[in-house]
Design goal:
37% of the residues lie in helices and 12% in strands. It has 5 helices and 4 strands, in the order E-E-H-H-H-H-H-E-E. The radius of gyration is 22 Å and the shape is elongated.
């Protein structure tokens, strides 16, 4: 019996588990538990590399499946996980990127992608100056 498990059925690891469609959705498969096999990232990639023909192209299969789901109105994309307005509000209050990241449980780089870029650059002495 095949189903979504918490470990790779090949090596037994419980790290980086992905659920592989035995028959891809774009080729007529469904999301029934019997159409899944649980694999780690490495073995999932291996399975796709040894599959015959067009079934081997994992990214292409995903793209086809997403296009099909969009046409059926079942796919709207991933919902935003970061409250951009809250990040900007905290930034305007004077909090630093690390403080905001810790407060919102996100990575500091995410804060820098959201907040407006400041016109500051390092000079030759390593000091930040307004340019």
């Amino acid at each position: 019996m095949k189903m979504k498990l918490r470990f790779c059925v090949i090596c037994g690891t419980n790290k980086n588990i992905e659920h592989h469609h035995i028959t891809p959705v774009c080729k007529g498969g469904d999301d029934h538990p019997h159409n899944f096999i649980s694999l780690c990232v490495e073995h999932h990639g291996m399975i796709h590399s040894v599959r015959p023909g067009s079934w081997a192209h994992r990214k292409k299969l995903q793209r086809i499946g997403i296009e099909k789901a969009k046409k059926e109105g079942k796919f709207n994309g991933r919902k935003p996980t970061i409250n951009y307005e809250e990040v900007k509000r905290l930034w305007d209050l004077g909090l630093g990127a690390t403080e905001i990241a810790n407060h919102m449980n996100i990575h500091r780089d995410s804060v820098y992608r959201i907040v407006p870029k400041e016109p500051y650059r390092k000079d030759k002495k390593g000091q930040y100056k307004l340019f």
